[in-house]
Amino acid sequence: MALRAWVVLLVFVSAAGCAAQPFGVDLDGRPVDRLAAPGSRAIVLFFAASDCPICNRYIPEIERLDREFAPAGVRFWWVYPNPEDTPGVVRRHQQQFDIQGNTVLDTQQRLTAMAHATITPEVAVFVPKRNTLREVYRGRIDDRYVSLGQERPSADKHELEIALRALIANRPIAAPGGPPIGCSIVPRSEP
After folding, report:
1. For the domain that residue 178 is a member of, what is the CATH number?
2. Which of 3, 24, 48, 182 has the least CB density, counted as fewest CB within 10 Å?
């Protein structure tokens, strides 16, 4: 079966809450089998890396959006896909930056594959629908970074926020205006 078909099957089975492979593990090594409680409007996956300075600059923005949209049923996850981000490293990172949100170590890079994420920071927004997750947005958070090393003083267009507002209002969601800028996700080496 093709890789894409396996990913779709994994998303379906995991979203259904069946005994499929978990999305990842939490910081205590427990499997993360469910990304959102029943009735959630959306799931935002924020792909993070403890050693990416651009990613670290977005921590306050992601926390602000989490606080703003959580009451509307949007659940945010800090997804750490890189092999060097072990539980100890991530705990220190979260303490250093006072990160309080849901965290998943994407040790098998299942979420990375599901979202087709390649960069930290990058976000993917999924809508739970019956027993599946449907991606409705993937890309950058805003337009603060023009390229590596070239940053605006502040963002002109807050694309993730605009997408979430459209989702909550049941309006069409626009694609991001450009690619995410940051650090590459390190591919998992096969055993």
Report:
1. 3.40.30.10
2. 3
Helix, strand and coil percent figures for the chain, each rounded to 5 = 30, 25, 45
pLDDT at position 3 is 40
| Buried residues in 113-148 as b, exposed as e (16+ CB within 10 A) | bbbebebbbbbbbbbbeeeebeebbbbbbbbbbeee
- Residue 159's pLDDT band, with cuts at 50, 70 and 90, is very high
pLDDT, tens digit, 9 for 90 and up, residues 57-112: 999 999 999 999 999 999 999 999 999 999 999 999 999 999 988 999 999 999 99
Identify whether 11 is part of a domain: yes
Q: Are 136 and 127 in contact (CB under 8 A)?
A: yes
Q: Which domain holds residue 96?
A: 3-184
Q: How many CB atoms lie within 10 A of CB 10?
A: 17
Residue 191 lies in a domain: no
| β-pairing verdict for 102-105 and 119-120 | unpaired
